[in-house]
Amino acid sequence: MKLYTSLTSPYGRKVRIVCLEKRIDIQLVEVTTGTPDSPVNAINPLGKVPVLVLDDHRALYDSSVIVDYLDHISPVGKLIPADARQAISAKRWEALCDGILDAAILIVREKRRPPEFQLAGVMAHEQGRIDRGLAQLASDLAERKWCMGDTFTLADIAVGCLLTYLDLRFPDLQWQTQYPNLLKLRVRLNERPSFIDTQPPPPAS
Ligand SMILES: N[C@@H](CCC(=O)N[C@@H](CS)C(=O)NCC(=O)O)C(=O)O
Fold first, then answer.
1. DSSP characters for 147-181?
2. Ligand 1 atom closest to Cα of 38?
3. Residue 189 carries which DSSP code?
4. For 29-33, 47-51, 64-68, 88-92, which range has the lowest pLDDT when averaged over its residues?
5. Which residue's CA is minimally distant from atom 10 of ligand 1?
6. What pLDDT is recorded for position 133?
């Protein structure tokens, strides 16, 4: 299996951590996106990473589908609970984290435009999703060890990838002082080899 991603993609990192936790071997193919000639366009019509290309050449996207597939093909280190209600709860954590990331990435993209073309209204709207999303994550986590209670799951991986992305791209956000319980979780997650081995490089700009 080949995983097409960039090393900076938080969604790609989520998939890479899942592979490491489940001891699934994949070949990493580093790609760039966002250009008409990006090789990703040929395997994902949306032109986004991550994409997992299976040995029979089928391409899977997006990251949420890929992690479901990976958890399904190997019983090692199950990350999505077997119980249906619990599984949906874990996927809800993931959906919220991915949604906050979508908002954060839109702001990053907007900030790359010349100041006179940046849309303050769009950025404020997206910032609202980030602020409400973080408040919800902190409230749902409360004083639990892991998002779902005593067991490490996909939900923790999704939260960890989100928080690292925010640290790199939004250093002024101050989520750590506002939500000390999320910080405690992030510290615990960053001790895991899978998180250490997939630390993203600092952003170029
Ligand atoms: N919902 C998608 C989001 C993927 C996504 O937005 N990936 C970004 C990189 S972090 C991308 O490929 N962007 C390229 C583009 O929008 O052209 C997933 O979970 O895989």
1. TTBSS--HHHHHHHHHHHHHHHH-TT--HHHH-HH
2. 17
3. H
4. 29-33
5. 9
6. 98
Judge whether 1 and 9 are in contact, CB under 8 Å: no
Position 205 scores a pLDDT of: 60
- Ligand 1 center–CA 47 separation, angstroms: 8
Ligand 1 closest atom vs CA 6:
9
Q: Mind listing the domains of the chain with CATH numbers? A: 2-73 (3.40.30.10), 84-192 (1.20.1050.10)
Q: Which residues contact 163 (CB under 8 A, 6 or more apart)?
A: 175, 182, 186
State if residue 50 touches ligand 1 by the CB under 6 angstroms criterion: yes
Residue 35: which pLDDT band, with cuts at 50, 70 and 90?
confident
